[in-house]
Specification:
The complex is a heterodimer of chains A (about 425) and B (about 170). With about 425 residues, chain A is an all-alpha fold. Chain A is built from 14 helices and two strands, in the order ααααααααββαααααα. Chain A has two domains: about 80 residues, no CATH class; about 280 residues, no CATH class. In chain A, α7 packs parallel to α13. The termini of chain A are far apart. Chain B folds into three domains: about 80 residues, Up-down Bundle (Four Helix Bundle (Hemerythrin (Met), subunit A)); about 30 residues; about 35 residues. In chain B, α1 runs antiparallel to α2 and α2 packs antiparallel against α3. Classes of the chains: A mainly alpha (about 425), B mainly alpha (about 170).
Chain lengths: ~425, ~170
């Protein structure tokens, strides 16, 4: 049965490949743009007005991205539980369907049929808008990431600025959720979330700024094209493989985990402390929307990390350019997401003062440091000399910071005054 | 023109609500709405950079700052706020009328001739950056120094190097 299906699919795809008049309609490279082109062709065939074609084509392009990532959301919710279970030496969901594959469907049905509770003390309008406002910026941010050589949903010159601008909406939405619930745990969770997100936004932007400085463009596709080629015939010319990029990439990754409210920085929804943070008073589909916003935000921030530091859709080894570029992007995305799950399964949650101190006293100085280091790297010829100077410039402050903080802030014996 | 007509009444309504609402959190959220709608207006007339910066600075920074300061201060009495309203409205109108009059006068005098004809002049982002970092460099440097001072100051506030913090006075 399976081989027949594969054969039929191949036949159908190759048929589509030769159906276009001006060359093949679809190649491996432009496969994700197939819905958009089909909609355009159909609308043009029925001689629709120009604005309708434009709107239809745009809706199809947006629909492709949203569809792909909603599928990804469903898969990730299962994948996360499976991976976490394996980390903890359990089996994970395995009842709904083969290998638990139907678990997202079951979860979805459960969420949809649950009662939608609005507390009497809640402000119903804000309580209703907040989950929607959390999903919207995540979807918008997904729109500007270049997924492949030909697959860039919204080719925006200011892609990076757009990404951070829509991210600002998330903070307001979380505040609304926490405040409108009219209960103390959501309020505490929202306050934690806002202070955490403001603190970690600075290192995030500083490390992204280093990339912008070196590339000279704010357009994300421009940044990806800038990382083309290979050093020594084998090492890809990605930003992460330069001295400034290593540090900036690491800072961006840590700050990104915090921005996405993931473990070990998941204090806003610390289950053992404040029930579920800003989501405590939500149930049913609104609760599911919060999770959707969180996972889509995770996709967006990992996608941006890949774009800025990991070469976006560029192939990791020479001679692999024949594989469609979007496959490379999603392969890298899968690896990064797995890395996030691994961290979640391994690290304990940090305390709130450690969290703030880590951002303000460690990540921000390092983020600021990447800017002069990037400049030195540029003017020292991007070679061995550059490696030496930049390495010294990065290592000396790093060691100084760690030694200093270890002496002043090392975890001392904690004394609990109320217990004694 | 149509987006302008659609979005300006909304901006005005949100701004009016921001000054009218007695509950501070509502006022702050309406202010954020009004500011983000202004950002949307910039985007619609093709000034992408200023629109996105408006979002980033005013919605992501200023509105959050206001909300945060609301959370860590004690709320005032709402009934008192409502009782003070007539006087506030009078003061507001006294301020608005001259400003509005001046703006209208300026617009009636100084509207550019070719206003309605042709597309708006567009400035590529590269030219904007070039100008900002050559001709306007002193201003940028001054702002940068100021912001760095603020950043270091914030880090100093966040610092807490007490080795042996005072034990809480327990009974």
């Amino acid at each position: 049965m399976k081989p027949v299906l594969v054969l039929l699919l191949t036949l159908a795809l190759s048929g589509l490949g030769w159906a276009g008049e001006a060359g093949p309609l679809v190649t491996g490279e432009s496969l994700p743009r197939l819905p958009q082109r089909l909609v355009e062709m159909i609308l043009e065939a029925v001689s629709a007005p120009e604005w309708l074609v434009a709107i239809g084509s745009f809706a199809a392009a947006a629909g492709t991205v949203v569809g792909v990532f909603l599928g990804g959301f469903a898969l990730l919710s299962l994948f996360e539980r499976k991976v976490l279970a394996r980390v903890q030496n359990r089996l994970g969901p395995n009842r709904a369907g083969y290998f638990g594959i139907l678990q997202p469907v079951a979860d979805g049905i459960k969420m949809l049929t649950k009662e939608d509770i609005v507390p009497t003390k809640a402000e119903w309008l804000l309580h209703l808008i907040a989950p929607v406002l959390i999903v919207v910026p995540a979807v918008l941010a997904l729109g500007v990431i270049p997924y492949g050589r030909e697959w860039l949903p919204v080719p925006l010159e200011l892609g990076l600025v757009f990404f951070f601008a829509v991210g600002a909406m998330t903070e307001i939405a979380i505040f609304m959720a926490g405040w409108a619930s009219g209960s103390k745990f959501p309020m505490l969770g929202a306050m934690r979330a806002i202070s955490q997100m403001i603190s970690y936004e600075l290192p995030l932007m500083l490390s992204a700024l280093a990339v912008v400085m070196m590339t000279g463009t704010l357009s994300l596709s421009g940044i990806v094209e800038n990382q083309q080629g290979f050093h020594l015939w084998i090492l890809p010319a990605w930003n992460i493989l330069t001295p400034w990029g290593m540090v900036a990439g690491l800072v961006f990754l840590i700050a990104g985990i915090a921005e996405a409210n993931r473990c070990p920085f998941d204090l806003p929804e610390g289950e053992s402390e404040i029930v579920a943070g800003h989501m405590t008073e939500y149930s049913g589909f609104k609760y599911a929307l919060f999770f959707m916003g969180e996972y889509l935000g995770l996709f967006a921030i990992s996608g941006l990390w890949i774009t800025l530091f990991l070469g976006g859709w560029q192939a990791p080894l020479p001679g692999l350019g024949f594989v469609p570029s979007w496959i490379w992007f999603f392969g890298k995305l899968a690896v990064v997401i797995f890395f996030f799950l691994w961290i979640r399964g391994t690290f304990p949650r940090v305390r709130i003062d450690q969290l703030m101190r880590f951002a303000w006293l460690f990540l921000i100085p390092l983020g600021l440091l990447t800017l002069p280091v990037a400049a030195v790297w540029e003017y020292s010829g991007r070679g061995t000399l550059g490696w030496l100077i930049c390495g010294a410039m990065l290592l000396v402050p790093f060691v100084m910071l760690t030694v200093f903080y270890n002496r002043r802030l090392a975890p001392a014996t904690r004394r609990y005054h109320f217990i004694e | 023109m149509i987006p302008l007509l659609l979005i300006t009444p909304l901006i005005l309504l949100a701004a009016l609500g921001a000054v009218w609402k007695a509950r501070p959190v509502h006022a702050a959220l309406l202010l954020a709405l009004s500011l983000s709608l202004i950002g949307g207006l910039y985007l619609m007339i093709g000034a992408e950079f200023i629109g996105l910066v408006q979002f980033m600075v005013y919605v992501g920074g200023v509105a959050i700052l206001i909300v945060f300061s609301l959370l860590i201060t004690r709320p005032g009495d709402e009934a008192e706020e409502v009782a003070r309203r007539p006087r506030s409205v009078a003061t507001g109108i006294a301020c608005v009328v001259p400003v509005l009059g001046m703006l209208l006068y300026a617009f009636s005098k100084g509207l550019p001739e070719q206003g309605s004809e042709g597309a708006a002049p567009s400035l590529p982002i590269k030219d904007l950056g070039d100008r900002l970092f050559t001709y306007d460099l002193p201003a940028v440097l001054a702002v940068a120094v100021l912001l760095t001072a603020v950043l270091i100051g914030a880090a100093l506030f966040a610092r807490n190097f007490d080795k042996n913090p005072e034990p809480p006075a327990d009974s």
